[in-house]
């Protein structure tokens, strides 16, 4: 008969002790969790056993919650920024449109006042829609044509002064030759009453905006600051439209004549709205006096009938 060794008995006992301890710990944890076995020792054991797991779980949960809040804030801020940007763009567009309408209203008001102050002109408002690419500085395109009654050689103006003439009229638009074109020639006169010096205003080839009044005698009565207006000579331009102001006087080639450098009344680089003079009449003040009726009665005129007062006295 074989007798078991002491080592085997010791191993079996140790295994039983370990199993008992494990079961005891599990029971303590279980009862402590359901609050049916609450002792300081069990509570301490539960805390010591579960604390690491709770710490890790709490940290992970906090990180996840913080990340979720961060993601929510990112998307919220993105949506807010997108909405604010759309509102900002809309406000900018409205401000720009309002400023443009205000500018257009101011220009049209000036044109309306000009029409009121010049009843001798029949004005057709027009808008500049382009410039001739080959003569950028000397020709413009307007949105009025022969369908609107525009014809070649009609005068084009702004409330500030003379712009030019209709170079070519098409059905829906027209090409305007500016007075800055060297090929143009405008009969002009000094507006000052004690001068009334006549000359011709032309554009210059060396500048896109300069105009000169030429053919001026050396001893002519013209000085810097004089206002130059259309003379009406030749019949193309109506009389009295402002052309520009004399800025300086210079000797012409040969020295026999001089010319006046003018500052144009119109800023040709900023033309937007103009008016075409489709018809014009002499101002009322410039019309010749009408013949008066004769003061002496005619030989065969009948005597005037007696008034009621005279008839009463006769009675």
From TrEMBL:
Q: Where is this region: Disordered?
A: 284-315
Segments of skewed composition (Low complexity): 295-315
Q: Which positions fall inside the Rod shape-determining protein MreC beta-barrel core domain?
A: 128-277
Q: Which residues form a coiled coil?
A: 81-111
Task: Write out the transmembrane intervals.
Answer: 12-34
Q: Which keywords, in A-to-Z order, does the entry hold? A: Cell shape, Coiled coil, Membrane, Transmembrane, Transmembrane helix
* Matching InterPro entries: Cell/Rod_1, Cell/Rod_MreC_2, MreC, MreC_beta-barrel_core
Family matches, as Gene3D superfamilies:
Rod shape-determining protein MreC, domain 1 (2.40.10.340), Rod shape-determining protein MreC, domain 2 (2.40.10.350)
Signal peptide feature range: none
Q: PANTHER family per the record?
A: CELL SHAPE-DETERMINING PROTEIN MREC (PTHR34138)
Tell me the function of this protein: Involved in formation and maintenance of cell shape.
Q: What is this protein called?
A: Cell shape-determining protein MreC
